[in-house]
Every structure is written in structure tokens, then in C-alpha cells.
Design a protein that fits this description.
mainly alpha; 2 domains; Endonuclease Iii, domain 2; Endonuclease III, domain 1; about 0% strand; 12 helices
């Protein structure tokens, strides 16, 4: 998908073509290890935390259950205080248990989400407490590999558009969708490039320490 998507985006939008040129090859990858339940539990753990802190808490959670995400029934049966012991907030424990309950009852059929259209998946996942549209969109993009997802309220996407398209202030959701209309059916890849363009700018902004000898470049 990546090569075809990049070719389409270059032709469809000259501004985005410049972003693609600066960022380089598309390295978008789908994270398909484990189950959909594993992915949703991880998503809840990572909400509103830095990557390092979230990774530590997630690792402790897995260690509590022998190195794997517990099945929904086991998670529901685990006392909240035990889960608090790995660093989870009471709010996130409530979110995870609501997810487990809905999966167990069949209200959120994670095993068959792949069969649904994008909006139906968003509608299904957002039944879970603490799971909003953004989390559902990330699941569509990075778990299911859906090619045409545009997270129009994502701060990173909006910042990148503001810089690349020189908008006055952060663009609204409506403006993001309007600018992104030519990207279809590959909005996912366009969003990936926008995020990476911010990473590139941040990397350039970090001052390099002087060194008596040039460093040998790392192999890619």
C-alpha cells in the first residue's frame, strides 16, 4: 500500500509532496502482534502519559499476568488494588474493566471488528468508557491498517498542517478535512507523513553538542 499511496499523494497535493520529499521513504507499519484486546488495553494504559512512563506501567501489568495481557474474565476478576499496584489510576482501571465487560458480553465484538466499516468500528469502540474517537482512529490506522483515516482533531496533524500549509492559527477539524480531501483514499499515509514532519523539525531544533571528531553515521 505504501508505494501506491505515496505516488497518489505526490500527484494529488503539491504541498504534501514537499512534506514527503523532506521526510523521505514511508515507513508506516501496522502493529499486529497479539490480539485486538491486547491492543485496546495497551491504548488505555498509554492515554495521557509519556511513552516511557506508559511503557513501564504496561510492562508491569503484563508481568502481573505472566508476561501477557489477561483475558477479559481474568482482568475483571482481578482486584482494583492489585492493578493499582502496577501504577494504573483508578480511572484507567475502570476503563479497562468496562472494556473487558463489554468484550465478554459481546457488546464490543473485538474478534470481528475487521469485518466492519471504519465508522462502524469507531461507533463500536467508543461505547467503552474512556475510549474516544481519537483512540478508535489510532486503532483503525495502526492496528487494522485502514488506509483512509484522517484524525482531524489530532493536535500533531493540525500543527503539521499549520506549518506546511501556512494556515493562520491551528486549522479547525473542518479545515483539516477540506485540505485532506485530495488525499483520499490514503489519508492514513498522509497523516503519518505529517506526524513525521514534526519529528523532523524537532530533531533539527535540538542543538548538537560540539565534538572533536565527527561521529560515524549509524547504519539504517
Amino acid at each position: 500500500m505504501n508505494r501506491k499511496a505515496v505516488s497518489h499523494l505526490r500527484r494529488a497535493d503539491p504541498v504534501l509532496a514537499g512534506v514527503i520529499e523532506r521526510v523521505g521513504p514511508c515507513r508506516f507499519r501496522v502493529e499486529n502482534a497479539g490480539s485486538h484486546f491486547d491492543a485496546m488495553v495497551r491504548a488505555i494504559v498509554y492515554q495521557q502519559l509519556s511513552g516511557g512512563a506508559a511503557s513501564t506501567i504496561h510492562a508491569r501489568l503484563l508481568a502481573l499476568f505472566g508476561g501477557a495481557t489477561p483475558e477479559p474474565a481474568l482482568l475483571l476478576a482481578t482486584a482494583d488494588e492489585v492493578l493499582r499496584g502496577v501504577g494504573l489510576s483508578r480511572q484507567k482501571i475502570a476503563y479497562m474493566k468496562d472494556l473487558a465487560s463489554r468484550v465478554g458480553s459481546g457488546d464490543v465484538p473485538l474478534h470481528s471488528l475487521d469485518e466492519l466499516e471504519d465508522q462502524a468500528i469507531i461507533d463500536t469502540l467508543t461505547r467503552v468508557k474512556g475510549v474516544g474517537v481519537w483512540t478508535a482512529q489510532m486503532f483503525l490506522m495502526f492496528r487494522l491498517g485502514r488506509p483512509n483515516v484522517l484524525p482531524d482533531l489530532d493536535l500533531g496533524v493540525r500543527k503539521a498542517i499549520q506549518r506546511a500549509y501556512r494556515t493562520r492559527g491551528l486549522p479547525s477539524s473542518e479545515r483539516v478535512r477540506k485540505i485532506g480531501r485530495p488525499w483520499a483514499p490514503y489519508c492514513t499515509i498522509a497523516s503519518w507523513y505529517l506526524w513525521r514532519s514534526l519529528d523532523l523539525e524537532q530533531a533539527k531544533a535540538v542543538p548538537r553538542q560540539s565534538s572533536p571528531m565527527p561521529r560515524k553515521p549509524r547504519a539504517s
